[in-house]
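Lecture 7 notes: from sequence to structure.
We start with the chain below.
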Amino acid sequence: MKWFVGLGNPGTQYAKTRHNVGFMAIDEAAKAWGISVTQAKFKALVGEGNVRGEKVFLLKPMTYMNLSGETVRAFLDFYKADLEDGIVLYDDLDTPFGQLRLRMQGSPGGHNGIRSIIQHTNTQVFNRIRIGISRPAPGHVIADYVLSSFRKEEEKELPPILTSTFEAMEFSLANAFDKTMAKFNKS
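Predicted C-alpha cells for the same chain:
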C-alpha cells in the first residue's frame, strides 16, 4: 500500500492559492489514476484505487493546514499503515517556483502543516515532495503571500509543475524513495 497526502486548506477561497499546491498535486494524480477523492474520512477527503497492482490512497486533509497531522495520524492508525510508504506534498517557500525538492526528513522550516505532521507522528523522518513557490519580495507578509493566488504568468506554468510532481509520485510506486529523489531532484 502507498499513500499520498497533499496539504492545503478547504474551501473555494483557498482553492487556487500557493498554500494549496499540495491539493492541486493530489487532484492531478486523482485525474490521471481515475481515483475519486470524495470520501469523508480521517477529517479529510480520501480516495482509494489500484495503480499497477498497488493499492493507493490519496488524502486531502480538511482540517486546515495547521492541523494536517490529525489526518495523517488517523489514517496511519486505522490502516496500520507505515509512515515510510507515504509521501507528503506541500508548498515550499525555500524552493524556487517551478522546482521540486524531494526529502526524506527535515524540520518544518516554518511550515505549520509539516509541524503538525511531525507532532502527530513524533518524527521528522517521512518522505516529502516540496513544491517550490519561492519567497515573496522583502516586506511582504508570509501568511498573506502563501494565501494569495498565483500570478497569471505563474498559473500558466503550473500544469507542467503538477505533471512533474505526478511523475515523481508515479515513479515512487515502483521505486524506493531515495531512487525517486535521485531522479527528480534537480541541481
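Points to note: The beta strands are 2-6, 39-41, 44-51, 54-61, 86-92, 100-105, 125-132. The chain has one domain: 2-184.
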